[in-house]
Design a protein that fits this description.
12 strands; alpha+beta; elongated
């Protein structure tokens, strides 16, 4: 039956059409078979298939389709209540999920070198609160000389006050002397919205004011208010393949920053995945002698836990 739900919605109803011909309306003949498909989809927990079956059932027979819609509505309500109950009753660490990334990179811009990278992402998703932590380190030495040294630590709490909307807070520390700054502290508070919220696709958008304090490698210091925007897109393509696109921007009068990362991930086995990614870091007004743009291409091994 699982392979059945990979068919198109129209194909599902064609399968449900009986071969014999009677004097009864075709939609009446189909109703038991379509209801069987609906029951199987609900048993499998496939909400997308449930929605598709109801859509085409209503087109064929409005009354029968509406009756199925009521049944599916009760099923969805039970699923939501069960999921919420699980979140309320779960221990703290039951809801913690993480991913470690280990790999190599090739950079161009202020440095042209090969190196190693390590990234740790941890998230806890509860009923109302979501917490995200990221730690990242890139380091490379050539001939005893440091060629690249970048560190990042970030924490973002989210409070979900509606099905798609949430308030966010963000605190971040960065250090990248090859891009022109020894220390940078950023804080922000604003609103987020899940523009796309589907089982296989999600798009979160965030916007709010921010404050940044930067100590540059030329000993100059900059403290300014900024506007912060962020995009987080994830798409499960199927077959263990997924695509993600992250982007963030801090816009201010003196020096604005834009970061973006595109990644294609393929599941290998168990908790292990392989990933290819391309990241861009842009500084609109870096110190004298520094380039505005750094790029990083990575090939990584991911471990989910």
């Amino acid at each position: 039956m699982p392979s059945l739900f990979r068919l198109s919605p129209a194909a599902l109803l064609l399968i449900a059409t009986p071969a014999q011909s009677t004097d009864a309306p075709q939609s009446t003949q189909n109703a038991p078979a379509v209801r069987a498909l609906l029951d199987a989809a609900m048993k499998a927990g496939d909400e997308a298939a449930v929605n598709a079956i109801i859509k085409y059932a209503k087109a064929a027979d409005k009354a029968a389709g509406e009756a199925m819609e009521q049944t599916a509505g009760a099923w969805k309500k039970q699923r939501r209540e069960a999921a919420e109950r699980k979140l309320r009753e779960a221990d703290f660490f039951e809801l913690v999920k993480g991913r470690a990334e280990l790999g190599g990179y090739l950079t161009s811009g202020n440095t042209d070198t090969l190196g190693l990278t390590g990234i740790l992402d941890v998230k806890r998703e509860a009923l109302r609160w979501r917490h995200k932590v990221r730690v990242q380190a890139d380091y490379q030495e050539n001939g005893g000389l440091v060629a690249r040294e970048r560190y990042l630590a970030a924490y973002e709490p989210n409070f979900k006050f509606a099905d798609r909307a949430y308030l966010y807070g963000a605190a971040q520390f960065e250090s990248d002397r090859f891009q022109g700054y020894d220390q940078r502290y950023s804080t922000s508070l604003g609103i987020g919205y899940s523009a796309i919220k589907q089982p296989r696709m999600r798009l979160d958008l965030e916007l709010g004011p921010a404050f940044r304090h930067t100590t540059f490698t030329d000993n100059s210091i900059e403290s300014q208010l900024a506007a912060r925007g962020k995009l987080d897109f994830n798409w499960q393509l199927g077959g263990g393949i997924s695509f993600s696109q992250d982007a963030a921007a801090y816009v201010q009068s003196a020096n604005s920053t834009i970061t973006a990362k595109s990644a294609l991930r393929a599941r290998l086995f168990g908790p292990f995945s392989a990933q290819m990614s391309y990241a861009v870091n842009y500084e609109s007004a870096p110190p004298v002698g520094r380039k505005t743009t750094d790029t990083t291409s990575r090939a990584s091994l991911l471990i989910d836990f």
